TrEMBL record:
Gene3D superfamilies: Naphthalene 1,2-dioxygenase Alpha Subunit, Chain A, domain 1, Rieske [2Fe-2S] iron-sulphur domain
Protein name (record): Aromatic ring-hydroxylating dioxygenase subunit alpha
Entry-linked Pfam families: Rieske, Ring_hydroxyl_A
Record bears the keyword Metal-binding: yes
Domain Rieske: 41-147
Keyword Iron: yes
C-alpha cells in the first residue's frame, strides 16, 4: 500500500482533482488518519462550549475517543476518553457537564484535571496517581480549542499569535453558544474541504448565502484579497479602525486569515443582510464583513461584527464526514429579545444542507470507475488547488522514513 500510495501521490497533477482512491479507498483513508488527522492540530470545540468547571466536549478521531474538559482551575485540557481500569469509554455524549468524570462501567472517578480520585476495592497496593487519564495535547487559537494526538505536537505558536490577534476584537471569551448543528455528509472529508475552498458553486447552490456573501473569486480564493478593489478598500478601512484584516497565510499554507466585505450594505449572514444579534462590544462598526480563518485539515470559520461561526469537520470513514457548526453570540444577548434563532441560523443551515447535497453527489460521481480527475478553474478554484496541493505535500512528507511533517 505504502508504495502504491506514494506512486499515486507522485502521479497527482497540480490543478486537477484527486484520483478516485483518495476519495473512496479505505486504505488511503487509514493513511489520511495516520499521516494527517493523528498528527496535526485538530479543532475540537469553541471555548464558549466550556462555560463551567466540568463542561466537556467529546470527539472521535479515527480510533481515538477524546474528551476535552474544563478543570476547577479554569484550564481546558484534553484526555484520551478511555478509562484506566478496563478501557471503557468514559463520556459517551457529544458534550455535557459533570462535576467529576465517572466511568459508567465500575465508577472509577476522575477529576476534570485528569487525576483518578476514587476506585473501589482496588487494594492497598493500588496507586491511584499512576492511573490518571492519559493527556492529549491541547491549545487555543482565536478562542478555539485544538487538540493533537501526536506524541510531539507540531509548533502552534505562529497560528496562535496571528489568529488571536485577528480575532481579538470579537471577544471570544465573552461569547456563548446560541446554536449548534451536527450533520453527517456521505462524502470523503476532502470533498467537504474542497467544496468549502471555492465559490464557483455558490451562485448555483446557495441562493440565501449569496444575498450577503460575495462569490468574487479574488476575495475567497488563494490570493491576497487586496487584488480585488472591494477587498482592498475593506481591508484598509478595517485596518485603520484597528481590526487586523490583511490576508496572511502560513509558510506551509496550512492556515489563512483574511477579512472580506459582504455584498452591498449587508452586515451579517441573514436573509435581509441586517444584523442577527447585538454588535460585539469590541467591534468598531457593524459592516466589518467576515474574518475568514481556515486551518487544515478540519476547520473554517467566520468572525462577524455580531456573531461568530465555527465549523468542525471530522472524518468518520472514507465516505462519511461529520460537520458541526456552532453559532456564537455575546453572552449577555438574550434569545427572543436580542436575537431570533431562526434569523441567526437559517442562512448557514440552508447553506450546509446545500453543500451536503453537493458533496454527496460528488462522492457518487468520483466513486464511478468512469471518473477521471478533471481540471480546476485557476480563476475560480485557486483555493481548492491550494488545499489539494497542501494535502499532497503533507502526505508525501509523511511517507518518508520517520514520517516527516510538512514544515
Ligand atoms: O465558508 C466559506 O468560507 C466558503 C468560502 C467560499 C464558499 N464558502 C462559503
Ligand atoms: Fe472504567 Fe471499570 S472500565 S471503571
Ligand atoms: Fe458551498
Amino acid at each position: 500500500m505504502q508504495d502504491d500510495l506514494l506512486s499515486l501521490l507522485n502521479e497527482q497533477r497540480s490543478g486537477f482533482s484527486l484520483a478516485r482512491p483518495f476519495y473512496a479507498d479505505p486504505d488511503v483513508f487509514a493513511e489520511d488518519l495516520r499521516a494527517i488527522w493523528q498528527r496535526e492540530w485538530i479543532f475540537a470545540a469553541s471555548i464558549a462550549e466550556f462555560p463551567k468547571t466540568g463542561s466537556y466536549v467529546t470527539l472521535q478521531l479515527g480510533a481515538y475517543p477524546v474528551v476535552v474538559v474544563r478543570g476547577a482551575d479554569g484550564v481546558i485540557r484534553a484526555f484520551h476518553n478511555v478509562c484506566r481500569h478496563r478501557g471503557q469509554r468514559i463520556c459517551s455524549k457529544p458534550s455535557g457537564q459533570a462535576a467529576k468524570l465517572v466511568c459508567p462501567y465500575h465508577q472509577w472517578t476522575y477529576d476534570p484535571d485528569g487525576r483518578l480520585l476514587w476506585a473501589r476495592d482496588m487494594g492497598t497496593d493500588f496507586d491511584a496517581s499512576k492511573h490518571g487519564l492519559k493527556p492529549v495535547h491541547c491549545a487555543q487559537a482565536a478562542g478555539m480549542v485544538f487538540i493533537c494526538l501526536a506524541e510531539e505536537a507540531p509548533d502552534f505558536a505562529a497560528v496562535q499569535a496571528e489568529a488571536d490577534r485577528y480575532a481579538a476584537r470579537h471577544g471570544m471569551a465573552d461569547l456563548k453558544v446560541a446554536f449548534q448543528s451536527r450533520i453527517v455528509e456521505a462524502g470523503n472529508w476532502k470533498l467537504v474541504l474542497e467544496n468549502n475552498r471555492e465559490c464557483y458553486h455558490c451562485a448555483g447552490s446557495h441562493p440565501s448565502l449569496c444575498r450577503t456573501f460575495s462569490d468574487d473569486p479574488d476575495l475567497v480564493g488563494s490570493d491576497d484579497s487586496l487584488s480585488s478593489p472591494a477587498g482592498a478598500a475593506h481591508v484598509n478601512r478595517c485596518e485603520e479602525a484597528g481590526l487586523p484584516s490583511r490576508y496572511v497565510i502560513a509558510p506551509n499554507e496550512q492556515w489563512r486569515l483574511v477579512r472580506i466585505p459582504f455584498v452591498g450594505e449587508a452586515v451579517s449572514y441573514t436573509m435581509d443582510g441586517a444584523a442577527a444579534a447585538p454588535r460585539l462590544p469590541g467591534m468598531p462598526f457593524a459592516n466589518a464583513g467576515s474574518l475568514l480563518f481556515f486551518h487544515y485539515p478540519n476547520t473554517w470559520n467566520h468572525f462577524l461584527s455580531d456573531h461568530v461561526l465555527n465549523f468542525r469537520v471530522l472524518p468518520i470513514s472514507a465516505t462519511e464526514t461529520e460537520v458541526v457548526t456552532t453559532w456564537l453570540v455575546h453572552k449577555d444577548a438574550v434569545e427572543g429579545r436580542d436575537y431570533d434563532l431562526k434569523r441567526l441560523t437559517e442562512v448557514w443551515l440552508a447553506t450546509n444542507d446545500e453543500d451536503r447535497r453537493v458533496v454527496e453527489e460528488n462522492q457518487i460521481g468520483v466513486t464511478s470507475p468512469a471518473y477521471e480527475p478533471g481540471p480546476y478553474s485557476a480563476k475560480q478554484e485557486s483555493g481548492v488547488i491550494q488545499f489539494v496541493d497542501w494535502y499532497v505535500r503533507a502526505m508525501i512528507a509523511a511517507q518518508a522514513p520517520g514520517g516527516a511533517r510538512l514544515a
